[in-house]
Amino acid sequence: MTIINDFMSLIYPRRCEACAGLLFKHEVFICNFCRINLPRSRYHCSREHELEQAFAGRVPFERAISFFLFEKNGRVQKLLHNIKYQDQKELAKYIGNQYAQELLKDGFDFNFDVIIPIPLHKKKLKQRGYNQSEWFAAGIAEQSKIALSTGNLVREEETSTQTRKKKYQRWENVEGIFTLKDKEALKGKHVLLIDDVITTGATIEAAWLALKDVEEIKISVAAIAFAARSLA
Hints:
The chain is α/β, with parallel strands linked by helices.
């Protein structure tokens, strides 16, 4: 089997999903250089950062964190593109696993009762075949042993792509698109909302609007990447 794998690697070499460099045998999805040097936010180590400030006065989150910082035309953007458009759902789960491991190693308090990924509209889900945020969430859930819920929060309206939209257009584009099937299931729970990339935060706030009337609910948010104003 090893000989066959070595032969196939010559014909179809495995490449890093971030930099496109060749992977060594022990490397999975991302080369060691990128794994170490991708721009991490480290937001879980502080309460004074741009992501939490972005939601101040808008959404009463307990915590808002992201694994990476998004840079236009950077390696994180390449990762996100491959996850969403190159059928790399397993890459999203791998990144979720890696993020959870780093959070646990740093002593981050996983005091969440349930993890809920931002859902896709059923039409887009059918077209893509998977929800990238759900796979990222699955990686976090696997490491943290926290329950994953994928059917309660529902995206009722399909929206056009957020790419290249101005800030006010993004708010209009997502207003009122989410509904919650079972409020009682989340009563008194601390929910960790999961998204792939946060830009203006409009999608996250739209999800919060569907959750905010649940009695005694607490909400936090985590993403693969955050497009900070200084970097996007």
